[in-house]
Amino acid sequence: MKHISILVPSGAPAISTIEGTFSGFMTANDLLVKSGKLPMFTVEFVGMSMEPQTYHRLFTLRPDVTFDQVEKTDLIIIPAVNGNMENVIEMNKTFFPWISFQYRNGAEVASMCVGTFLLAATGLLNGKKCSTHWLAHNDFRKMFPEVTLVPDSIITDEQGIYSSGGANSFWNLVLYLIEKYAGRDIAIAAAKIYAVEINRDSQSPFIIFAGEKAHDDEPVKHVQTYIENNFGKKISVEHLAKLTALGRRNLERRFKKATSNTVVEYIQRVKIEAAKKGLETSRENISEVMYSVGYTDSKAFRNIFKKVTGVSPVEYRNRYKMA
Predict the structure, then answer these.
(1) Alpha carbon distance, N-terminus to C-terminus of the chain
(2) 223 and 170, same structural domain?
(3) Contact criterion met (CB below 8 Å) for 190 and 175
(4) Residue 128 has pLDDT above 80, yes or no
């Protein structure tokens, strides 16, 4: 049997990441029994105290045990908790020594969506890769520079520490863990029950690029604004450096530090974001959309579009175009 501990956190968790994870493993148990095997998962809700937690004024969850009553577990699930992340971490920091202790003693740990902030606050992610909701990328990088964020990944698996991307991506991690423990046939059957695309590996198509503006480097902000207002033109780094009276190398260094993107990456992301909107809402063909955002080489446009979004322009339009 695999003992699974789902944390009952303080704050405003995404209820789906708690209930969905519980349901997923219980469904796996049912599928195992139907296939003539023994159930594999025992799931407990683990709190900092036995006090029930009420979420969104409507849902009350009572822990089965407190963390200090759990001597050993096989997998700890950290659900997503929304809100100011510094406050979220402060409210739940009592969990952290126990999580670290269990990991050192053989347990695995999985965070769902922005639950990655809580996982990173334990220190267990230092020097490792992780994913989180794309809306939280900039905040995560600032708070945890010692962790390698993999922005487009749906799932990361680093030495028994797992993370998932945004929102409903937690289902892909649940299925990944079911497959690891119970086999692919059980994971596929569960995926069909929940209508989840089991092999989805990127959240890139869902990312809306807005650029990192929460910094104090005014010349960099000026460059960002210029790029965003002139994405339909050919923009060179040399021209941007002249606009700010900075040398190219100085601008590139400051831009990367402030935005977590190189200047060229930022230009590409702004152009591709505009192209995505064109593909979603306009009747222009793909070549017309390409020209409107400043590309003239169709092969280069396709390659950059797929690099940024994970799909081709045609695939993107077919998924998201307005009726």
Answers:
(1) 49
(2) no
(3) yes
(4) yes
DSSP assignment string, 11-75: SEE-HHHHHHHHHHHHHHHHHHHHTT----EEEEEEESSSSPEEETTTEEE--SEEGGG-S--SE
Domain that holds residue 279: 218-320
Average pLDDT over all residues of the chain? 94
Residues 24 and 70 in one domain: yes
Q: How far is CA 166 from the centre of its chain?
A: 4
Q: Looking at the structure, tell me whether residues 25 and 68 fall in a common domain.
A: yes
Percent pLDDT > 70 in the chain is 100
Instruction: Say if residue 43 is in the same domain as residue 182.
Output: yes
**AA identity, residue 147:** V
Is there a contact between 37 and 19 (Cβ–Cβ < 8 Å)?
Answer: no
The domain total for the chain is 2
- Domain-embedded: residue 13: yes
Asked whether the whole model's pTM tops 0.85, one would answer: no
One domain, residues 248 and 146: no
Of 179, 206, 233, which one is at a domain's C-terminal end? 206
CATH number of the domain to which 165 belongs: 3.40.50.880
Paired with 53 in beta bridges are: 61
Q: Is 41 exposed, middle or buried (0-12, 13-18, 19+ CB in 10 A)?
A: buried
Amino acid identity of 269? R
Long-range contacts of 183-192 (CB under 8 A, 24+ apart): 185/35, 186/28, 186/31, 186/32, 186/35, 187/28, 189/31, 190/24, 190/27, 190/28, 190/31
Confidence category of residue 323, pLDDT binned at 50, 70, 90: low
Is the pLDDT at 202 greater than 90? The verdict is no
